[in-house]
Amino acid sequence: MTQATQKTWFITGASSGLGRAMTEQLLERGDCVAATLRRPERLDELKTRYGDRLWVAAMDVTDTAAIRATVGGAFAELGRIDVVVSNAGYGLFGAGEELTDEQIHHQLETNLIGSIQLIRAVLPHLREQGGGRIIQVSSEGGQIAYPNFSLYHASKWGIEGFVESVAQEVASFGIAITLAEPGPTATNFAAGLVSPAPMAVYDKTPAGDVRRAVANGTFGGLSDSDKVARAMIDSVDFVPAPKRQVYGSEAWQRIGDAYRERLADLVSQRTVAASTDADA
């Protein structure tokens, strides 16, 4: 682990949740932040307090042209950006059959395509400056799956696959990417869930069980949002960069259980796998 020094960060989705917590902590410790969000006025108080150390721009991650223009403007005005945090996103909550076509498209455009296009937009700038770090906010839901979160999981499993590949492509340029995987965290994530009209046929299924657990606040143990934000900030001081970091002891346990189950299933398939090899 190296000694932390003053850095410049680019953070999407900085208006609330982990993005806001990271922005506040970074400014308080003396770093500079380029913060993007759909409603820039939400950071007026921080802008008044920190002045030029906070660069703010309106940006919707579903607008690829806007991503490229905003990223280009931030690098042009601020010079070197050390860390890019791809944080913007939300949860679509409902059984797969309940979701509308529009909801499906917007979930993937925001969480998956928006994250992909942000990373693609920053890579030329990071290459030109000789390297940098990217933190892609994923979720324990990028490694495991719950009923009623199918499209959210699709977006997170998808971005994890993209990052795993791209991280290998850009490592020789001095660019490292970490997947941040928090479990349920005390943010406004649950309040921001988008849900279709529920179908009564799912009431007595696992989808209905999860719906009720979310409604009554018993879905998963919550991590502290400030602690998660701090751990994400601290992750950039580790060399080499961690490929993944899990936040929350319950999330760690659930992901571990899923790994063990998958490995046992894989081992059981060895004979079948070998039976399909081409003849010598």
What does this structure look like?
By secondary structure, the chain is an alpha/beta fold. It has one domain (8-248): NAD(P)-binding Rossmann-like Domain (Rossmann fold, 3-Layer(aba) Sandwich), CATH 3.40.50. It has helices spanning 17-29, 44-50, 64-78, 101-129, 150-170, 206-215, 225-234, 249-268, 270-275; strands spanning 8-12, 32-37, 54-58, 83-86, 132-137, 175-182, 244-247. Strands 3-2-1-4-5-6-7 form a 7-stranded parallel sheet, sandwiched between helices. α1 packs across α7. The radius of gyration is 20 Å and the shape is globular. Keywords: Oxidoreductase. Belongs to the short-chain dehydrogenases/reductases (SDR) family. This is SDR family oxidoreductase.
- Helical proportion? 40-55%
Structural class: alpha/beta
Oligomer: single chain
Question: What shape does the CA trace take?
Answer: globular
Radius of gyration: 20 Å
State the separation between the terminal residues, measured CA to CA.
Answer: 49 Å
**Based on DSSP secondary structure assignment, what is the total number of beta strands?**
7
Tell me the number of structural domains: 1
The count of helical stretches stands at: 9
Q: State the major sheet.
A: 7 strands, parallel
Mean of residue pLDDT? Answer: 94
- The CATH topology is what? Rossmann fold
Beta-strand percent range: 5-15%
CATH class: Alpha Beta
Low-pLDDT stretches are: none
In spatial order, strands of the major sheet run 3-2-1-4-5-6-7
Q: Which architecture does the CATH hierarchy give at level 2?
A: 3-Layer(aba) Sandwich
Order of helices and strands: EHEHEHEHEHEHHEHH
The CATH superfamily appears as NAD(P)-binding Rossmann-like Domain
